[in-house]
């Protein structure tokens, strides 16, 4: 009796230690090397073809990975259709893009290796390829995520940062998913590519809420350019480049813009110009504006951190057949 108790205790301890090991190294770069050896080439080819059709798609795929990972972890929950989907949450509605491209990658992957590769991993690889094909850095993507069984619309509404929030609130949302201030600054550099709608920054151009706009931290010619592009009572869906210097090129000009008061969103410019930035993010912005090698290295590290947010592994979740619906 005593002996078997002891053995049970021992094997329980071993199981616990092994679970700890598994939990620390859930994802691996070679996860599909046996089950889907051509995965990376297949995804690369599809991303290449998508951005040949529309260069902006690189930015959209990168953002899709971010919006996936910040809500219930990187589990492709963002892809689920249905009225309770994350697609209909405020930060995503009429804004997040790239689902058709994820579908076409998934179709190509399924025809090579059926039922093996998760949608969450496809999005992570596509985001990496999007950065590389835009002139940015590359890295080995950790793989082995599984797909979630539920969408979380309220989680998307509360967990995704808004461009109108303070640096403290945005930072808290990063900290809530295990990221830190370095990640806030380096990942914001994703705004070196892509576009944003007028309705997400026109409060900086016009004094319609008594805020005293135009924003004194936006450079004068940029204010007047954007006032023409985004007139009062105009179409809020018109878009402007997040990086005025090189909208399709992944470089460190986003940070140079911030030094010149040419950040598009309030959430961009506050990284350099706000009072809160002095003790938190301003020095980082200066460093990245001056040293693109440092920016690239930190961006890669932060992308890996973001890709590690609460992955489903083992027997959690599933490998979805269609990225838009849970398996029946
Ligand atoms: C720091 C907090 C962040 C805020 C407040 C924010 C906010 C926004 C907003 C408002 C837009 C424009 C959406 C639209 O017009 O429909 C946007 C676009 C974009 N965001 Fe962010 N973002 C943040 C962080 C990130 C991160 C961490 C990434 C990726 C690592 C990212 C990648 C992008 C990209 C690439 C675009 C352009 C998408 C396109 O052109 O389709 N953002 N972001
Ligand atoms: C949705 O997200 C919120 C905030 O992260 C979390 O507290 C909640 O448990 C999530 N709900 C589901 C059903 O996953
Ligand atoms: C954030 O985490 C990284 C590791 O990913 C670390 O190198 C960096 O110093 C941390 N930054 C802050 C401000 O704590
Ligand atoms: C902005 O509008 C408020 C009233 O809504 C007014 O008091 C203020 O002077 C205006 N500021 C500028 C810079 O026009
Ligand atoms: C933007 O486009 C969406 C979808 O086409 C539409 O529902 C919405 O009314 C438009 N918003 C503005 C401000 O024009
Ligand atoms: C940029 O680097 C140069 C030398 O490498 C240095 O003199 C300068 O102060 C730096 N500027 C900023 C804004 O960090």
Key terms:
328 residues, mainly alpha, Peroxidase, domain 1, Peroxidase, domain 2, two-stranded antiparallel sheet, 14 helices, globular, binds protoporphyrin IX containing FE, binds 2-acetamido-2-deoxy-beta-D-glucopyranose
Compute the number of structural domains.
Answer: 2
Largest sheet: 2 strands, antiparallel
Compute the CA-based radius of gyration: 21 Å
CATH topology of the largest domain: Peroxidase, domain 2
Q: Please state the oligomeric state of the protein chains shown.
A: single chain
Total of helices = 14
Q: What is the tally of beta strands?
A: 2
Q: Tell me what the CATH architecture of the largest domain is.
A: Orthogonal Bundle
Silhouette:
globular
| Structural category | mainly alpha
Order of helices and strands: HHHHHHHHEHEHHHHH
Distance N to C terminus:
46 Å
Site (Transition state stabilizer): 63
Disulfide bonds: 36-113, 69-74, 119-323, 198-230
Binding site for Ca(2+) 2: 192, 243, 251
Domain Plant heme peroxidase family profile: 26-327
